[in-house]
Amino acid sequence: MSMSPRPAPDLDLRRDQVIGAARELAEADGWPAVTMRRLAGELGVTQPVLYSAFASRQALIDAVALNGFDELAAALKAVEASPKARMRAYLDFAAAHPRLYEAMFSLPSGLAFAADDTPEPLLRAFSGIRDAFPEPDETQAEVAWAAMHGLATLQASGRLRPSHVEARLDLVHRMLTQPATH
Amino acid sequence: MSMSPRPAPDLDLRRDQVIGAARELAEADGWPAVTMRRLAGELGVTQPVLYSAFASRQALIDAVALNGFDELAAALKAVEASPKARMRAYLDFAAAHPRLYEAMFSLPSGLAFAADDTPEPLLRAFSGIRDAFPEPDETQAEVAWAAMHGLATLQASGRLRPSHVEARLDLVHRMLTQPATH
DNA sequence: GCCTTTGTCTAGCAGTGTTATATAACGATG
DNA sequence: CATCGTTATATAACACTGCTAGACAAAGGC
Q1: Pseudo-torsion of CA B124, B128, B130, B131, nearest 10°?
Q2: In angstroms, rounded to a whole number, what is the distance separating the alpha carbons of residues B149 and A23?
Q3: pTM of this prediction?
Q4: Which pLDDT tens digit goes with each residue over A15-54?
Q5: Is A29 touching B (CB cutoff 8 A)?
Q6: To the nearest whole angstrom, how far is the Cα of B141 from the nearest Cα of chain A?
């Protein structure tokens, strides 16, 4: 066996650079504009180099998405653990980084959720919603998550009245915190 | 002026054929597999012919989506006008035609919703949800729609526990029909 | 018969993701 | 110091995409 005859240029560092450039480019011009050629040009290298960091364009997008879940989890944890504060933080996050959110949820990806091999950032983001309620319940958290996700995506595609963001959030909040009559 | 020296092959008919073939292909192999070449091959014509029916691939996908909204509106109207029945019909529709639903909501499209030029099928589908409630309210309907949409998409991408579909629907239903304490 | 109009096809452009092959840079060894 | 072997990078190509200009053919009116 022999050691590295040529120093590896810190793969992790370059992964981060590629992820960052992809995010920037996507947020500016949309995901279709994020091509391997343009990305390589932006970084001053050639396409094949990108394939030493990510096996495919899809793998790169998945990495960006995972990155996004990490940030989302942090954004949720950063505010007080009340349903309304956390839900508002969720909607704010989605509105602030629409393309990133798109990569996390709308673009095809191999990231499962309620499975055995669920990546850790996804679990952390989910618990950020679940633990916002006084009596955490899995089903309630799933419904809250779904409501937030629905509001975020429909809002982003211009299918809800922009002037009623607050009213909808209020209604969801009231519904979820009302004592169940069940 | 002069009349048609060659009979037009019923453009509307062919539009429907193309839409149908695109839907079938998408449902079978996913949207990326729906290429103009493959679609033309499936229909026994060449690519340029498709462009006489639709200006672009995007326009074709939009047409498929609009078609889907039409079917969704019909599926909702077909069941009794109760919140639970309509919401279940919505989720069933999304689960039965995942790629069609994807075209309607996840793929980029120019179909607005809460705008002046909102296509009529979209309005009909939305009212199918709104009018399911005893006292129709726009905000309530938007929230119900968002919850359904969130459940449908998160479920489709395997991010909710498959065994708890009914429990989540129950919870949403209870929340939305409970008298507001506000 | 011809001519005009129009639909269709062939062939091509520019761009994509991805990869096989060649080149150049570098550490370890003699 | 020179050579060797390894490995990151670059060049060039493949197969594919959406889309389109120009050539061909079919079908009515005269």
Answers
A1: 110
A2: 26
A3: 0.90
A4: 999 999 999 999 999 999 999 999 999 999 999 999 999 9
A5: no
A6: 10
